[in-house]
Each structure stands twice: as C-alpha cells, then as structure tokens.
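Quick one: structure tokens for this chain, please?
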Amino acid sequence: MATVLISPLILTTINGGFHGGVIIISAEAALDPLCAASHEWFCSPTDFDSSDTQEKLLSHITSPLKCEPFHNDEFPPPGAVPDAYVHSICADDNDPNCGDCLTRATQLMRDNCQGKDGAQYGTEQCCVRYEKKRFCRA
C-alpha cells in the first residue's frame, strides 16, 4: 500500500500505480494526468530483474514518449511482454530545452531510484515516468 500526499483530482488518475513506497505529487503543476510537476521523485520499492534494464530504459528517453512499451531485449520476440512502460513529456515539445530537461530528470532517477522498476520525476518544464506495470493506454 502506498502513502499518497496528493489532491483528490490527481489521486484518481494514478490510483492503482505503485504497490508501495511514498508518492509525493504537487497538484498545482500537473503537465498531464499521467505525469505531475512536483520537483519530487518517487521510486518503486522493487527492482528490475536485470540490473541493466533501468539504464537502457533511461538512456532511451531523449525526447517525449507517449506511453511507449520498453523492451530490454533489442529484438524482442513477437508478443513479448514489455519490461516497462515509459511516458515522458515536455510542457512544450518544440522547446529546444526539452531534451535537456528530460536528461536532467532521467539523471535524478538514476541517482535516487537506482535499479527500481518504476520511478517518476517532474518539473513545470518536463516529466518522466516509467513503471513495470502498465499505467496508461498506448
């Protein structure tokens, strides 16, 4: 069970997300229903099965990705279950600083959620979220 400090509006959006840990999200600066700008990170309490999955996944996030499945295997067999789902956005996808913001967000995830199978970090400019469990519709 997760401890959630959040407005009821966003709570209904992320309800059913992580199965543990602490989620801190600021309601005043939500970029979209799947990712909030809190200047806080949250991490899943569990790790990926493979130690390199998180690094490959975070290296993959260089531009906005709308709820994409991620496979650690470069050529997954047809019908393979993704290792994670990734959602990364910028307040303005055409902003030349969008990629830099996503890079800073992924670095904070590396530093604070090492090896975890789910994490989120967001600012008013961008937000990155990934989880092992599908949290959105692709």
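The two ends are 26 Å apart (CA to CA).
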